[in-house]
Amino acid sequence: MTQVAADALGLPWERCRFEGGDTALPGIAAAVGSAGAGMISAAVHTAAARLRDQLVAQAVADSQSPLHGADPAAVTVRDGRMMLRDAPATGETYGDLLHRNFLPDVEAAGSWSPSPESHHYGMMTFGAQFAEVAVDPELGVVRVRRMVGAFAPGRVLNPKTARSQLMGGMLWGLGQALLEANYMDPRRGRWVASSLGDYLVPVNADAPDVEVELVDVTDDIVNPLGVKGVGEIGQVGAAAAIANALHHATGRRVRKLPVTIEDLL
Length: 265
Known about the structure:
By secondary structure, the protein is an alpha+beta fold.
């Protein structure tokens, strides 16, 4: 969100600060259904763009500004400086404008709601996943050697964090496929695995080579920036890819998760 605000305001990202997660702040979309990034970025972008346009309009109307009388559409902003697109030497910074007009701060609000078009189009991220497995023919032990995922999340805000989240989802799917299960103890009426000390999840020793490919897709309908989420999409296809790889390796079609040694022997 810091990047989104900085981009709309024409400021270096280190000069912007995003605050969230506090009940004193306006309500935002819940981070569920992979909707957080798209919905929140749309509101942040709208607010920041309105603030930028407000400052540009004020500069154009200020008789002491180098931009006085200019067409607002001809003004661009870079590094906190408003300038004419065709004459970059003509302009001033936000700070110059505020200081001259004795303004300690300015503000603008922005909101966004999904378009009615969302009922007619698929709005979610899509992708494909592949897995390579090895199975010990005598012990039935499975090792996932390689996982590859290709995803199209619209406009990618931050490739580094998007890849990290998708990789985490794929490893989550590995746990779903081979490790994660819990059972009720009928004698005590309690879950057998009552803590993460007993419940099996993938660790670094289980992690294979994971490759994540991002396909940048332009989407003019989903929201103003064309941003979609990568919350769950990394996980949803991983277990299916591993189960299909196990079928290819062993000939056994297992239709439950997790796939256990007993299912393969």
